[in-house]
Amino acid sequence: MFESETDTEAVAILCKYFYDDQPAGAKSFTELVKTVLRELQGSFAFVFKSSHFPKEIITARRGSPLLIGVKTEKKLKVDFVDVEISGPKDVAESRKSL
């Protein structure tokens, strides 16, 4: 059991717990994040980034809006990515390689 003062910190700790609990490379980043999201209740919007998966970023939301913008040298860039709806808890997730 662990303690945290914020929900967001608890999600990060849960990610590390599930990562450390698996054999090396057993789960992809997407599978790892889905495992964590299945444990959550209520509304959320997260961006997941890990040094263990340096070329990937995963966004996920349930009931909360999620908007991401990237500022380039010239202007603000907005990129639309595929959205995958999965699981019984209606977790909307998008994944994009960097």
Provide an overview of this structure.
- With 98 residues, the protein is of the alpha+beta class.
- It has one domain (7-97).
- It has two helices and six strands.
- The strands form two sheets. The protein has a four-stranded antiparallel sheet with strand order 1-2-6-5, with helices on one face. A two-stranded antiparallel sheet has the order 3-4.
Overall pLDDT: 76
Strand order of the largest sheet: 1-2-6-5
Number of domains: 1
Helicity, in percent? 10-25%
Tally of individual helices: 2
Q: Please indicate the percent range of residues in DSSP E strands (runs of 2 or more).
A: 25-35%
- Quaternary class: single chain
Radius of gyration: 14 Å
Strand-pairing-aware structural class: alpha+beta
Terminal-residue CA separation: 34 Å
Task: List SSEs in N-to-C order.
Answer: HHEEEEEE
Number of strands: 6
- Largest sheet report: 4 strands, antiparallel
Shape: globular
Taking pLDDT < 50 over at least 5 consecutive residues as the criterion, the unreliable ranges are: 87-98
Key words describing this protein structure:
single chain, 98 residues, alpha+beta, two-stranded antiparallel sheet, 2 helices, 6 strands
Architecture blueprint of SSEs:
Elements: H1 7-20, H2 29-37, E1 44-50, E2 53-62, E3 70-71, E4 76-77, E5 84-86, E6 91-97
Antiparallel strand pairs: 1-2, 2-6, 3-4, 5-6
Helix pairs in contact: 1-2
